Amino acid sequence: MAQTQQGRSGRRGRDETAEERADRMWQELIQEVRVAQTGVQILFGFLLTVVFTPKYEELSDTDQTIYIITVVLGACATGALIGPVSLHRLVAGRSVKPQAVRWASRLTLFGLVLLLATTCAALLLILRVATRDGFVPYLVAGVVAWYLLCWFVLPMWTRHRHTAP
After folding, report:
1. What are the φ/ψ torsions at residue 81 (nearest 5 degrees)?
2. Which DSSP symbol is given to 60?
3. Interval 86-123: pLDDT, tens
4. H-run or E-run covering 161
5. Burial class for 39, CB neighbours closer than 10 Å (0-12, 13-18, 19+)
6. Whole-model pTM?
């Protein structure tokens, strides 16, 4: 009975080997990446088209700079969120899945930070063009706070609160 609760390695939790755990974590990570990839690819695709519209030439220098920064952030987010797929493909069959899961997890987290920056920069640009009002930075700051709460604060609080020392 104690073996089942403690697992093969003496830890509490699932009864799985390091390789089984890496396989499970990889599958979970890939499902998470699929969600984030879809969002970043749609946003990035939209951003790529803006420069070819007549409205782009009417943007102020500041708005064009925000646009360029947003596109670069989107490209970087896309790279980071597609990175785990490439990493897996290049190291598959090399008996390094636990290490690959750690690196893919880091890439995914970094990609989410870049996606946050991309989304907020795009929101800043859109609201600046749509309203030209001084409250735009406050709206964007509110959205940034909301994303930080949903994407990082709540998960970290849950991790801290419900993980045994």
Report:
1. -80, -20
2. -
3. 998 899 888 898 999 999 999 999 999 999 999 999 99
4. helix 154-162
5. middle
6. 0.84
